[in-house]
Every structure is written in C-alpha cells, then in structure tokens.
Design goal:
122 residues; mainly alpha; elongated
C-alpha cells in the first residue's frame, strides 16, 4: 500500500467517525433524551477534516495521537453501556483504530527522509 491508500483510509474513517459520533449523541443512543452535549466531542475531528482530506502530514501526525482518545471512549462505553449504545461504541472503537492506522502509516510514508530516498531501513 502507498501513502494515497493510507490517506484514503484515514479520510474515510474520519468522516465515518464524525457521522457516527453525531448520530450516536443526537439520535441513536444519546446519554439524555433529545440529545446530549457530548456531541461536542466531534469538534476536534472537524478541525482535522480538511487537513486530512488535503493530505497534510502534520494533521495526520496529531490526529493519530488524538484518535487514541476516541478509542478509549469507545472501549469504555462498549464495556460499560448496554444495548445499542454498546454496539455503536464497538463500531466507534473500530473506526478509531482504522483512523490511527491510516494516519500513522500516511505520516510514515510521507516522511521527508523517505521522500528524499535516504531511508534505507524501510
């Protein structure tokens, strides 16, 4: 796989994570009836959206770190919630792992040393 494939993985998982986060906290299984303020957790994802879509290496780097916060939330809620919320949390966890993989490997494949051809250990 090349950098373009990893950017596609990061982009698609980020968009899916945004949409799932919105649906989860507003309609599917909010903490409070009618939606909850927990929907604001997607603001950092939205901040990264255009950088990821444009293939900005720096955005991929910090998003790979931030994706672990979403992974943690997914794991906690998948094991503590019940019913639909637990199922959504499991999917949320999977999407955060895919985002991490896409961002990490995109950043690796677009490293300046790799692009200059000086990275012999790859």
């Amino acid at each position: 796989m090349n950098a373009r494939h990893f950017n596609l993985l990061a982009s698609s998982s980020l968009i899916a994570l945004i949409l799932l986060g919105l649906a989860w906290e507003l309609w599917l299984a909010p903490l409070r009836p009618g939606g909850s303020w927990l929907v604001l957790k997607i603001l950092p994802l939205l901040a990264a959206l255009f950088g990821i879509l444009r293939g900005k290496r720096y955005t991929h780097q910090w998003m790979s770190l931030l994706s672990m916060a979403y992974f943690t939330e997914g794991i906690v809620r998948a094991t503590s919630d019940t019913g639909l919320s637990a199922q959504i949390a499991a999917l949320y966890t999977l999407l955060s792992v895919l985002l991490f993989i896409g961002c990490t490997f995109y950043a690796k494949h677009t490293a300046p040393s790799r692009l200059a051809g000086t990275d012999k250990a790859a």
